[in-house]
Write a sequence for this structure.
C-alpha cells in the first residue's frame, strides 16, 4: 500500500514539475513580448524624430504595438490559468505526501508494536525457563 502511495506522490510531483516548466516558458514568452514592445516603441520614436516622416512605417509600428498589447494580455490570461492549475496540483501533491507520511507512521507504529510483542514473548519464555530451573533445582 505504501509503495502505491509513494508512486502516486511521485506521479503528482512529476505532473507539478511539468506545469512549473510550462509556466516558466509562458512567463519567458511574456517577457519577450514586453521586450518587443520596448523595441517597437524605440523604433517608433526614431521614426517620429526623423526628418522625413514615413506614414506607412509609423502605421505598421502602431499596428504591431496594438498586436503586442493584445498578445501580452492573452499571455497574462494563460499564465493566470496555468497558475490556477499549478495551485490545484500543489494541493494534490500535498495530499499525496500526507497519505504517504500517514502510512509510514502507521508502519513504524506497527513495527514497534511487533517488536514489543516479540520482546515480551521472549522475556516470558526466559522467565518460564528460569522458573522451571528453580523448581527443578
Amino acid at each position: 500500500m505504501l509503495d502505491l502511495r509513494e508512486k502516486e506522490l511521485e506521479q503528482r510531483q512529476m505532473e507539478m514539475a511539468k506545469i512549473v516548466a510550462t509556466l516558466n516558458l509562458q512567463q519567458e514568452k511574456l517577457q519577450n513580448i514586453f521586450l518587443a514592445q520596448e523595441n517597437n516603441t524605440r523604433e517608433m520614436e526614431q521614426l517620429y524624430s526623423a526628418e522625413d516622416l514615413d506614414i506607412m512605417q509609423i502605421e505598421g509600428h502602431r499596428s504591431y504595438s496594438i498586436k503586442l498589447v493584445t498578445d501580452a494580455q492573452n499571455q497574462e490570461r494563460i499564465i493566470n490559468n496555468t497558475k490556477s492549475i499549478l495551485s490545484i496540483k500543489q494541493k494534490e501533491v500535498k495530499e499525496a505526501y500526507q497519505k504517504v507520511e500517514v502510512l509510514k507512521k502507521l508502519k513504524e507504529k506497527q513495527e514497534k508494536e511487533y517488536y514489543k510483542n516479540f520482546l515480551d514473548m521472549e522475556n516470558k519464555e526466559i522467565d518460564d525457563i528460569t522458573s522451571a530451573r528453580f523448581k527443578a533445582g
About this structure: Residues 2-98 form one domain. DSSP finds two helices and no strands in the chain. The helical segments are 2-49, 55-136.
